[in-house]
Amino acid sequence: MPAPPPVVGGPVHSAAFAELDATTLYAILQLRAEVFVVEQRCAYCDPDGRDIDGATRHLWLADERGGLVAYARTLDEGRDRTRVGRVVTAPHARGHGLADRLVRHVVAHAPGPVLAAAQAHLTDWYAQRGFVVVGQRYVEDGIPHVPMRHPGPTAGRAT
């Protein structure tokens, strides 16, 4: 029996690594492995050392039962730049705008520009959210990627 659709109206949860409980951390790593390693058939070491950095934020959305349905990670790139990555939605929860909510949340709360190493097939998806391509396509772990940048939450506002 398919899982019920996720509740989309819940809050965006945000925590540093040290604030994550074991169950949430397990769910995050399980979802990332399920999609990035198994579904995308990409054998790579997902825990890359950046998850535990004190400035890294782990963002997620949960369904009505508290189960993790979407996740993103932000990294502090210095000079008020934020990198968003590991954006992932559980297969059963796709099509409900969950990744969109997470990415928009990141942009709205960033101190400046937001960088992304977008998988090439998602270039248009990121562009629809205000990101622009800022470099040449490259291959990482066997998957084509494109460097992208969003000007940040103050773009277009008078300062």
Keywords:
alpha+beta, 3 helices, 22% helix, 159 residues
Short description:
This protein is of the alpha+beta class and 159 residues long. Helices cover 22% and strands 30% of the residues. The protein is built from 3 helices and 8 strands; from the N terminus they run βαβββαβαβββ.
Structure overview:
The protein is globular and about 40 Å long. The chain is of the alpha+beta class. It contains three helices and eight strands; from the N terminus they run E-H-E-E-E-H-E-H-E-E-E. Strands 1, 2, 3, 4, 5, 6, 7 and 8 form an eight-stranded mixed sheet that branches. 22% of the residues lie in helices and 30% in strands. The protein has helices spanning 22-39, 98-109, 123-127, and strands spanning 13-15, 57-62, 68-78, 81-89, 114-119, 132-133, 138-140, 143-150. The termini are far apart.
* Cα distance spanning the termini: 53 Å
Helix content: 10-25%
Report the C-alpha radius of gyration, rounded: 15 Å
Oligomer: single chain
Helix count, per DSSP? 3
| DSSP strand count | 8
Question: What's the SSE pattern?
Answer: EHEEEHEHEEE
**Are there runs of 5+ residues with pLDDT below 50, and where?**
none
Provide the residue-averaged pLDDT: 91
SS strand fraction: 25-35%
Shape: globular
Which structural class best describes the helix and strand composition?
alpha+beta
Main sheet, how many strands, which sense, barrel?
8 strands, mixed
